[in-house]
Write a structure and sequence with these properties.
The structure holds 2 protein chains of 2 kinds. Chain A is an alpha+beta fold. Chain A is about 20% helix and about 35% strand. Chain A is elongated, with a radius of gyration of 25 Å. The relative contact order of chain A is 0.17. Classes of the chains: A alpha+beta, B mainly alpha. At the A-B interface, strand 8 of A face helix 7, helix 8, helix 9 and helix 13 of B.
């Protein structure tokens, strides 16, 4: 290989590689690094929640259900397109595209692709009930309070 | 302007007095801005029933958007806490602010309507044929930029309408997850989540989304539009002016042409004044909507996106993936591919490619109307697969709904026509017409016939009191 060809080749390779690196690191800036873990939420003492009722927890978008045995928590976000579900007499209904779920969070009708996730419920040291949206449990698992 | 007879007695500018010619040509060539035009314009291009001036109207509406947008931008603050109040200030405190905001809103609505009319005009006159395929593609990109500009502007007031429309929109962007979930590969590769993150910078719509949409709306999209617009206009000149029928294709020099100065200038000034007056008039009479401030805990019921996306929202109510992603992407792929699939240049510049084409267009429009409405009837009256077989696989929901069934039938029909008539132009006439009619029907249903919980209602008077 002649010297001039070598210089030409290495120079153009350098330009392409450097350009690609600049482009990638520039485009990377459009994707923020998000905190991956979802925060645990303390929702208060068990007696704050009426028995046999679904209570909507504002800002955190889930329902808390308490019966005489214990407490469980289910997501209030429709698995279709993220609208907040309304409690109907025997389940949940989405105001946006009409998906219906039963009281176990299972899809009954409409376009929703998945059942609603149930969140792990536990008790903190100070006696408050804590819901962890990062940990998914089954619809039967409830935190026993009695 | 008798273009029809001038084929025999050649009307030509070449015998004009040299001093007149010099002055009129000079007006155009010596001015940077006017030089966007050729010095001479073909008589056929001046026929109002050929272009309806739609491209020009779009350009002027865009001008209104820029002028009013700059004022709105001065008074608006893109922050979750203050955005809503700043829009209220614009409406109630800034002198003339209400009119400026209304004009901005109505010009944007106008752009959406006219951009589709322009698409229809260009398609049905076969103006993508010949050497104009690249400009068609640029035009379709501009259609997308127009819709994105509208959508990004929708979030900025931070009212209930804005918040829920964008929540739904961003989750449509993430709807590829529906497919990756079914395949069980979401944890490995998640294009839906990737797209959503790019769009709103987080898991839910919040300050990052507002900042991103603001940047898109005031810098990125208008600049993109301006560049595309320049290329679009430049290509028209490069392609030899507006498209015209084959009989005039060979007109060289001054044959069948007029000087652009002053004829075209008067026409353009007239259209500019008309556009401004109409927008101003509507803006004086009708206020742009502004609901209560955004509340992330309580969606509106029904929560509707902007009207031009309600067709897609109707499809999305069947399945997020097929309605929000698959069908729209297919439609865009079809639009982009038209000038490369159909190379029958003899049809250029002729409305509906003549009588045969017009008949075909009317038949396909009727067929599409029947097909879509009958499926909607079944769906509203008797339900769909998930109502008949509860617990059915999500695959059925994605692949067998009115949106996908309609698309497959249209594609088969177009392919059948292409083979039967041995013409790609006739095939694309069928598919384009069918797809457009379906889009209109779904949009109309979404706008007027869907109520709380996205249930079917004949009129808003029948909505239950919530």
């Amino acid at each position: 290989m002649k010297r001039r060809h070598f210089i030409k080749k290495s120079a153009s390779t350098f330009v392409v590689v450097a350009g690609a690196l600049v482009a990638v690191s520039y485009l990377r800036q459009f994707f923020p690094r998000l905190a991956g873990e979802k925060r645990r939420v303390a929702i208060g003492a068990p007696r704050q929640f009426p028995v046999d009722t679904y209570t909507y927890i504002d800002e955190h978008n889930f329902y808390v259900y308490r019966d005489h045995e214990g407490i469980k928590a289910v997501s209030a976000v429709c698995t279709h397109l993220g609208c907040i579900l309304e409690k109907s007499t025997d389940g949940f209904e989405c105001p946006c595209h009409g998906s219906c779920y039963n009281n176990n969070g299972e899809v009954l009708s409409g376009p929703a692709p998945r059942n609603l996730p149930w969140y792990q419920v536990s008790r903190a040291a100070d006696g408050k009930i804590v819901v962890d949206p990062g940990k998914i449990v089954g619809a039967e698992d409830k935190f026993l309070t009695s | 302007m008798d273009v029809e007879t001038s084929g025999k007695e050649q009307n030509t500018l070449d015998q004009q007095v040299p001093s007149v010619r010099k002055r009129r040509v000079g007006r155009i060539t010596q001015n940077f801005f006017l030089h966007i035009h050729d010095t001479r314009v073909h008589l056929h291009s001046l026929k109002p029933t050929y272009t309806f001036g739609l491209g020009m109207i779009l350009g002027f509406l865009f001008l209104i958007m820029i002028f009013t947008g700059v004022i709105l931008m001065i008074y608006y603050t893109p922050s979750v806490e203050t955005a809503y109040q700043s829009v209220k200030n614009i409406v109630f405190i800034v002198p003339g602010g209400r009119i400026v905001r209304n004009m901005h809103w109505w010009a944007s609505q106008g752009m959406v309507i006219v951009v589709f009319l322009h698409l229809l005009r260009v398609f049905y006159t076969g103006s993508y044929l010949g050497n104009r395929s690249l400009n068609w593609v640029i035009g379709v990109v501009m259609l997308i930029v127009t819709l994105l500009s509208n959508f990004s502007g929708y979030l900025l007031p931070w009212d209930q309408l804005a918040y829920w429309a964008v929540t739904i929109g961003s989750n449509i962007a993430a709807s590829a997850r529906e497919l990756t979930d079914l395949l069980g590969i979401t944890s490995v590769i998640d294009p839906g989540g990737f797209l959503k993150k790019l769009l709103i910078g987080g898991e839910t719509v919040g300050q990052p989304a507002l900042s991103r949409f603001f940047a898109l709306h005031v810098i990125f999209l208008p600049l993109t539009m301006l560049v595309l617009m320049s290329v679009h206009f430049w290509r028209i000149r490069k392609d030899g002016g507006l498209s015209r029928p084959a009989q005039y294709a060979g007109d060289k020099g001054g044959t069948n042409k007029w000087y652009a100065w002053p004829v075209l200038m008067w026409t353009e000034l007239g259209i500019l004044i008309l556009v401004v007056v109409v927008v101003l008039f509507i803006a004086l009479l009708t206020d742009a909507p502004l609901l209560e401030q955004a509340n992330p805990s309580f969606p509106e019921n029904p929560a509707k996106s902007p009207w031009y996306f309600l067709g897609i929202q109707e499809l999305v109510s069947y399945s997020a993936f097929s309605g929000g992603l698959l069908i729209p992407v297919l439609y865009l792929v079809f639009l982009f591919s038209i000038p490369y699939k159909d190379r029958e240049d003899r049809y250029v510049g002729e409305w509906f490619s003549g009588r045969k084409g017009l008949k075909l267009v009317l038949y396909s429009a009727g067929f599409a109307l029947l097909l879509v409405i009958s499926q909607l009837f079944v769906m509203v009256r008797y339900g769909w697969f998930r109502d008949w077989f509860p617990g059915i696989s999500q695959w059925f929901v994605i692949l067998l709904n009115p949106a996908t069934i309609t698309a497959v039938i249209f594609i088969l029909l177009a392919e059948f026509t292409r083979r039967r008539m041995n013409s790609t132009r006739m095939g694309s006439l069928v598919l384009f017409t069918c797809a457009f009619v379906a889009l209109v029907v779904f949009t109309v249903v979404g706008i007027w016939f869907r109520g709380p919980n996205w249930e079917f209602f004949w009129s808003t008077n029948h909505w239950p009191v919530l």
